[in-house]
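Each field is listed here:
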Amino acid sequence: MHQEPEGDDVTELSPGAILAWEIAAVEAGHSGAEFIEKEHFLIGLCSIGKLVSRKTGNPHDDRIENIAREGMEIDQLLQITGQDATVIRRLMRIELGTGSSSPTSRIIHRSPECKKYFSRAAWHA
């Protein structure tokens, strides 16, 4: 259901960012959104720590270790700023509401606005 990262603005995504993108696509699909929006991606970023805490597979897998590290860094940043990942996810879902597209297994692309945020992030990286 997700769109694979492609293009100049996403050539060097970390494993955690790729996972966040995949989560964003699932969120967009389940909510009936036409596109992946920046808010869906924020939900994905705020979900990494939760998912990694339930991780399965080879505990020595470098990808899982990298994602776990990224999830911890995000959680620490949220904690330092007095934010809570669960609250952010819930607020973003309320903000986004329900779209008119029916949930399917179709590929969901980023919205033009979301693509702009990716381009800006790539430029600053």
